[in-house]
Amino acid sequence: MSTPSVVALARKHRSLLKDFRNQEPSLVEYLRRFALRHAEKDLLSRTYLAIHEEGGVDRLAGYFSLSTVSVERTSVEELPTLWKLPRFPIPGVLLARLAVDARVQGQGLGRHLFEEALGLTLELATSGPVAFRLFVTDAINEDAVRFYERFGLCRLSDAFPARMVLDIKPLLGQIP
Ligand SMILES: CC(C)(COP(=O)(O)OP(=O)(O)OC[C@H]1O[C@@H](n2cnc3c(N)ncnc32)[C@H](O)[C@@H]1OP(=O)(O)O)[C@@H](O)C(=O)NCCC(=O)NCCS
User: Fold this and answer.
1) Which end of the chain is less crowded, N or C, counting CB atoms within 10 A of the terminal residue's CB?
2) Each residue's pLDDT tens digit, 33-72
3) Alpha-carbon distance values, 46 to 19, 59, 74, 89, 145 (Å)
4) 107 CB under 6 A from ligand 1?
């Protein structure tokens, strides 16, 4: 599969959403029922689609959703780069959802989407008008925890969904 383009979900994409398949029904349902509403009406999260073209037809290969979050200071006590911060909740961007269509998993798209989501976050942290320190997600199961650990996220909870965080400060100098 060639590298798909990643675009913000809009009304014109509605017909693409119906065909999306994933082993986690909640991630399919979110995309079909809530993602557009949350982006356009409720302003709760923004969703990005990976669309690839196959024989002249657009197909939805995966998606992620971004939102904001605040993480309790006590829950990051163990992380050496964060324990000196003041005892306030720590602001961050939440990777609220990430899923790849079951038919194209294992081909690098999950990594590509993760890197796009982190890239948008680092752009916002570098040149946006707000400051925040964490990139955060809630891993749905053990497989998802292992997936995110590959990218350096640290697990904060043994229960599921398992909150996982990445301190973005060391990454900010790497933006071109
Ligand atoms: C997790 C998910 C997004 C990965 O997508 P994918 O396209 O199959 O992943 P990739 O092919 O890009 O794999 C990226 C890396 O993660 C690894 N990886 C993929 N799935 C993994 C898993 N379940 N456990 C551990 N590692 C995993 C791959 O081996 C690869 O490593 P490499 O780059 O060193 O070779 C996809 O399996 C999915 O939609 N799962 C169900 C929903 C889910 O769990 N979402 C995330 C948490 S809410």
Assistant:
1) C
2) 999 999 999 999 999 999 999 889 999 999 999 999 999 9
3) 20, 20, 28, 23, 23
4) yes
